[in-house]
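Sample intake sheet
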Amino acid sequence: MPDLVLFQPDIPGNTGTLLRLGACLGVQVHIVEPAGFRLDEKAFKRSGMDYLDAASMVRHTSWVVFRTWYQQQSRRLVLLTTKSSLAYTDFHFQKNDLLMLGRESSGVPEEVHAMADERITIPMQGKARSINMALSGAIVLGEALRQTA
């Protein structure tokens, strides 16, 4: 089953929402630290509600630690980005994919972008810049689960 990966998330509500989604769907959520908030903050707990205890969350203390881990696992890193022309609906997901979402404020650094095995996007209308991170994760995870079920 694909996993979600949150790269240094900024907004506790989005992280809590994605952990709740992971708990409901049986998907592991990885957090690549440092986060822009403490993982015990009230807003984080409020958005995750009582699902946080049921969520499978793995914390990685840095990008280097996460990169080493996923490479040892031979998993494919799929970056959700606005800097791609490949629509997620045209992409062929695999069961062991790691679906990475960047920081809400700035995405991922160029080094992380360059390391991704694949880069996909959610096509948007007109001059829209981006979709909320939690919504983007839910949209793409839904398609990945549909394809790999």
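Comment: The two ends are 8 Å apart (CA to CA). The chain has five helices and six strands.
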